[in-house]
Description:
This protein is mostly beta strands. Helix content is 7%, strand content 45%.
Amino acid sequence: MFKKITVLSTLVIIVMNIAFAQNGGAKIYFDKAGKVSDESVAYYYRQKGDKPDTYISHYVNGEGLFFEGIIKNASDSDEGANVYNGTCTWYHKNGKKKSERTYNNDGIEHGTSIYYYESGKIWKEIEYIKGKLANNSYKEYDEDGQVSKIFEEDFNNNSNDWDLYTSDKNSASITNGNFTLTSFTKDGVSRYISLPSSSQEFALEAIVNISKLKNGEKAGLIFGFKDWQNYNFFLITTNSFYIGFVYEGVSSMKTEGMFSSDIKKDQDNNIKILSNGEKNVYSINGSIQFKTDRTRNFGSNIGFAVSGKSTFSIDKMIYKEIDFKSTGAIASSNADRDVKSTGSGLMFSTSGYIITNNHVIDNSNKITIEMNYKGVVKSYNAVVVQKDIDNDIAVIKIKDETFVPIDPIRYAFKESGAADVGASVFTIGYPFALSGMGKGAKFTDGKISSKTGYNGAINSYQTSIPVQPGNSGGPIFNDKGEFIGVINSKIMGADNVSYAIKLNYIKNLIELLPDSPLFPNDQSIGLSTTEEKVKVLSEYVVLIKIK
């Protein structure tokens, strides 16, 4: 009888918490797993915010924020059933961000999600497209800033285009998250996909099952595969393993049929290769089996093979490219060695359109842009899509497979485009970015000195904003944070005399674009402090590097 009363009391407390939560900012308590709980065992509590659909959660005992963001449909019993919207933020107990995750209107993760260490440094950066990993990969950082690219294949679908078919010789299929290879002849069967890598350091692992592998037959990983004359392999049998490579058709065995007690015939096995650029380490189920000098990667293909008349299945594959360097990663200093000039630009569409000066991109062989968006620095390839030589303006667009459309633009083009003499203005740009001033965006301000430019040019303003080489192409904004023009020149030897192309000429060029993107019109930062405006606007100002 006593036990029944105790259970009933707990249920009453939970129901009361839910009822009170529907009345203003009352609290609902949850355990660490996000399930509704009694206050005495709760990990955090949730309250409604001041705005519609906004919620704020706190750790219990006054330990600070746990969560803040929009929940379109908030469950009162299980946080896992919530439907989130926009950018939502979770926090560590020390007050630093734990993660920032972005959701579309349907509550599906879409865009950039970032996870942080308790130190505040970035841990993971994941791009989602309607709930799915972009390119089945994400980036992971250590606390020293070294970045690795993680490719995960869980075989829930065939998004990576494995060669699936059945013939009289072999079969390859994906069913219920398992990739199964079956050979009907003594020739065996293999399948592979291309995973280009720019690093000599990597980790490659797979969860495999050999319960249907016949005695004496081999199955496992092939990597650095170019063709059947050039590849590396790590294969296991029911009780032994084989390591080696084939180069120009000549086979070199590092170990042949070495016994291992770590192999499980009737259970899943984790087979793994670690390379530090000098040595390769081979492990089975967490136990090191063998070490060799690093072998070269002949090609970019990675996959699986099974010999003889046997069946072999794979549950998961993970490839980690350590010290990853590409257009989507934080650029190293070596990547700037062939840059011949730099400029600035303003992103004005979620799809990656950028306005800059024609003289910034003129005579370029290759254009890359570097942007600091949501605290993450990324580099992307870009191409010229429209230019106006007479007015010294151009539109470029990001053209890079790693780019995911950004969130809606949080500033506005000034409707009339006009600015009066004496009006306060400022610019954000990248002066001398590679020559001592660094690649952080720089703020400078001034006034509109004249409604005409050099020699009375009507397409320009004269301003007192001090500018330097590298500011070219940078936007100027009025005191409301509205975009009104683009810096394009200065008078050498004169103090604080610069010129900016007026917005109306820029609008005319944008209207010539084939997909006619809408002009940004978000006025939300208008009443913010200058510091807050600069923080928001800096995310859209990019460094342009010309090669």
